[in-house]
From TrEMBL:
One of its GO terms (biological process) is DNA integration. This is Tyr recombinase domain-containing protein. The lineage of its organism: Bacteria, Bacillati, Bacillota, Negativicutes, Veillonellales. One of its GO terms (molecular function) is DNA binding. Keywords: DNA recombination.
Length: 71
């Protein structure tokens, strides 16, 4: 879909806003960085740099889950 058509409904947003929401949703669903980078046609390093705060939260949640499993 062309951004000009979307802009009618979301006049205050830019294309990057939608990309950010898309990546945030993928990270929240624990999609790995390699897959996200592939979907964005970008590098893992770039994705990690831009969304590192979400990556750190996911890592913390993984540690919590592991601790729950191991008791």
């Amino acid at each position: 879909m062309e951004f000009s058509k979307i802009k009618k409904f979301y006049p205050c947003h830019i294309p990057h806003d939608f990309r950010h929401t898309y990546v945030t949703n993928l990270l929240t669903r624990e999609v790995d960085l390699k897959t996200i980078a592939s979907l964005l046609e970008d590098t893992i390093a770039t994705v990690e740099k831009m969304y590192i705060h979400y990556s750190e939260e996911i890592r913390k949640n993984a540690v919590i889950k592991l601790n729950e499993i191991l008791g």
